[in-house]
Amino acid sequence: MGRRLNTVIPVLPKTLQPRAVDQDAVRKKETAAKQKQSTSFNQRHRAKEQPRIEIGTEVFIRDRNKYGLVTQHSHNPRSVFVEEDGGTILCRNRSALVPTPPQQTEASTVPTTTRSGRIVKPVQRLIQNC
Fold first, then answer.
1. Ranges of Basic and acidic residues compositional bias (predicted)?
2. Nearby residues of 115 by Cβ (< 8 Å), 6 or more positions away
3. Spatial distance between the Cα atoms of 110 and 104, rounded to a whole number of angstroms
4. 105 vs 42: which has the higher pLDDT
5. Strands across the sheet containing 79-84
6. 102 DSSP 8-state letter
7. pLDDT (tens digit, 9 = 90+) per residue, 30-46?
8. DSSP-derived pairing of the beta strands 79-84 and 66-73
9. DSSP tag of 118
10. Is the model's pLDDT at 8 over the cut of 70?
């Protein structure tokens, strides 16, 4: 507490005089405590900063189950404006958006492998020659 309780026990007058508190030391201590609490919370909940989405990136909007295109960044941190396929412009947080992987235009020439490293060969009798 900030004051001494009034008792019948004799006390020196010097201890009854109010003392000024060092504001800088208190602020540093509170800042350190907040930082420690924040770090501990993030470790327990596996929280991490998500990478920023660039303008022009195609994304999947989770709450609408639709695809859209990032048009600009908002003045709020971690928020972007997304244009849906229908033309509607939405402001969404980074956690509500999933960047879609880039589309591959050509068939991959790299053979598919299993986890053990064996190359998977497609069955020739099932491949149709058109």
1. 21-33
2. none
3. 13
4. 42
5. 89-93, 79-84, 66-73, 58-61, 97-99
6. P
7. 999 999 999 999 999 99
8. antiparallel
9. P
10. yes
Torsion of CA 43, 49, 50, 51, to 10 degrees: -140
What separation in angstroms does the CA of 50 have from each of 32, 59, 94, 96, 123? 24, 14, 8, 11, 41
The token pair that represents 88 in the structure block: 């509607």
C-beta of residue 58 within 8 angstroms of C-beta of residue 99? yes
How confident is the model at residue 105, as a pLDDT? 64
Which tokens is 83 given?
């244009």
Q: How many residues does the chain have?
A: 130
- Among 63, 59, 53, smallest CA distance to 98 is for 59
Distance CA 70, CA 54 (A): 7
∠ CA 32-38-40, nearest 5°, is 100
Among residues of the chain, what percentage have pLDDT more than 70? Answer: 91
- pTM of this structure: 0.56
Do 74 and 91 meet the contact criterion of CB atoms below 8 Å apart?
yes
80: tokens are 């972007």
What are the angstrom distances between the C-alpha of 125 and each of 81, 106, 120? Answer: 49, 23, 15
